[in-house]
Amino acid sequence: MSREQKVKVALAHAAAETEGDLEATLATLDPDPVYELQPVGLEVRGMDAARAYYEYFFANFMPLVEGFELRSEWENDEGLGQEYVMRLRDKDSGEVRFEPIIGILLFGETGLSGERLYGNESLFKTMFGPIYDQAVPVGGASG
Predict the structure, then answer these.
(1) CATH (domain of 102)
(2) Of 51, 46, 12, which Cα lies nearest the Cα of 140?
(3) Banded model confidence at residue 142, pLDDT cuts 50, 70, 90
(4) Is the previous residue joined to 39 through a cis bond, with omega within 30 degrees of 0?
(5) Residue 143 pLDDT
(6) What is the number of domains present in the chain?
(7) How far apart are CA 138 and CA 119, in angstroms?
(8) d(CA 66, CA 50)
């Protein structure tokens, strides 16, 4: 695939996430995606884990998102980077806070090989829910 085609896949992935479309989101992924969480140094690996993450994400996290702003977007041969600030409602207090996050949608063979996300641990625990507890140290699943 050309870089232009890879960028189109990444943009389709971001749009499917925004729309809450589970199957369209998963369809943009290579068979063994890796979600790397930085700077906490953890990763979630594999299509089963990706499906479980997105099922949780759409059902539990997205309802807390009051809105978001795309602050910056860039591309290179590795992937498409996106910097966001989300307005996130706390599930307990109802208070809305601003949460910055950077996601790099990593290009794979025919889709995305995963994402490298930069945010704080609290945000990742809210985003990933019980899947966060299954995360392993980066590189740990593959040795």
Answers:
(1) 3.10.450.50
(2) 46
(3) very low
(4) yes
(5) 41
(6) 1
(7) 15
(8) 24
